[in-house]
Amino acid sequence: MTTHSLLLLPGDGIGPEIMASAGEVIDWFNRRAGGKLFTTETDLVGGAAYDAHGAAISEETMQKALAADAVLFGAVGGPKWDDVPYDVRPEAGLLRLRKDLQLFANLRPAICYAALADASSLKKELVEGLDILIVRELTGGVYFGEPKEIRDLGNGQKRAVDTQVYDTFEIERIARVAFDLARTRRNKVTSSEKRNVMKSGVLWKEVVERVREADYPDVELEHMLADNCGMQLVRRPKQFDVIVCDNLFGDMLSDVAAMLTGSLGMLPSASLGAPDPTTGRRKALYEPVHGSAPDITGTGRANPIAMIASFAMALRYSFGLVEEADLLDKAIATALDSGARTADIAPDGADTVGTEEMTAAIIAALDNLA
Ligand code: NAI
Ligand code: MG
């Protein structure tokens, strides 16, 4: 049996509570495999690491992250660290991981579970069965481009400058991720940019088209201006399979898509790096989209689904355990079908369960489905 190593970084707030749920799921897969399918090591990140070492992630933890097959990350931050210096604030731990692992591809699925189709802000028939994947470039673009500054113009005016920069190789590698993923899904990629007003959009379209022609002629490709893409996501979201876009548009489009399907507590994500030239395996970090939820920390009410679904993404994208990933996704859907609802996904006045009961419902579904 191939053993996969996971570094667990629970972080702050509800992070440790939902990571405990992921731990139970990992244990379940180990029991089912009758051995060590996964080994885990747990370490500090965020405010917890700052309290222990004065840094949001220690060098030792960084080394472990670089060596692990995948990192499972909870959430970081909270009011306790609001006055911590900028460079060592809890979020710096996550930024450091993204940078040092070179996680350039951010994957955000938007899946509408049948049991929750009524909870969407859109009409049920528009979102029922929705399953789309947004692939966002994460390490380039206007968030990082230089110059980036506020200039004093000396006449009582200031000028703020952000710079959108993309090189061919950055567009190429994110396009490849999108096309590869589309092949495992419904074989369609929508590439979204604003070539009508941005030079980076012109290059983006050109490069994505070239990558398809050279290596992915079997995958359907369409180009859609990013503003239209935002409209189409709320008008007719099921027309999409994989959407690929730059850092800025991806930030917005992925949040729009996410809200079609319900609560923050449901949303997983993956961030992938380049494939290792010898093993082919990508560095990867899996985390819920939500933060540390200080308002419900310690109450036992956190929804563990975003964290558990993030582990399902690790099964699928890091370990090639597609059957196991499908099984876990199905178990989440089954737990929801059985009526289990944490407070964030329950209609007002409905009965709710806590983190532990929701986790138990998912484990029970795994037992029944396996
Ligand atoms: P948040 O995502 O922590 O919470 C927003 C709202 O959603 C809260 O009412 C919270 O209770 C609820 N919520 C979030 N996750 C939930 C879950 N699993 N189950 C049930 N309800 C859930 O965002 P907020 O409040 O803006 O930030 C809180 C802290 O988290 C801040 O320090 C922020 O910087 C940090 N943060 C960290 C992120 C990360 O680690 N990647 C991402 C976003 C925020
Ligand atoms: Mg965002």
UniProtKB/TrEMBL annotation:
- Which InterPro entries does this chain map to? IsoCit/isopropylmalate_DH_CS, IsoPropMal-DH-like_dom, Isopropylmalate_DH
Q: Where in the cell is it found?
A: Cytoplasm
Residues annotated to bind Mg(2+) = 227, 251, 255
Show the GO cellular component annotation of the record. Answer: cytosol
Tell me where in this chain the Isopropylmalate dehydrogenase-like domain is found: 5-362
Q: EC number(s) per UniProt?
A: 1.1.1.85
Give the cofactor binding note.
Binds 1 Mg(2+) or Mn(2+) ion per subunit.
SUPFAM superfamilies under this entry?
Isocitrate/Isopropylmalate dehydrogenase-like
Pathway assignment reads:
Amino-acid biosynthesis; L-leucine biosynthesis; L-leucine from 3-methyl-2-oxobutanoate: step 3/4
Mention one GO molecular function.
NAD binding
Q: One Pfam match, by short name? A: Iso_dh
Q: Which UniProt keywords apply?
A: Amino-acid biosynthesis, Branched-chain amino acid biosynthesis, Cytoplasm, Leucine biosynthesis, Magnesium, Manganese, Metal-binding, NAD, Oxidoreductase
Q: Where does NAD(+) bind?
A: 78-91, 291-303
UniProt function note: Catalyzes the oxidation of 3-carboxy-2-hydroxy-4-methylpentanoate (3-isopropylmalate) to 3-carboxy-4-methyl-2-oxopentanoate. The product decarboxylates to 4-methyl-2 oxopentanoate.
What does the subunit comment say? Homodimer.
What's the protein called, per UniProt?
A: 3-isopropylmalate dehydrogenase
State the species of origin.
Amorphus orientalis
* The organism's taxonomic lineage, starting at the top: Bacteria, Pseudomonadati, Pseudomonadota, Alphaproteobacteria, Hyphomicrobiales
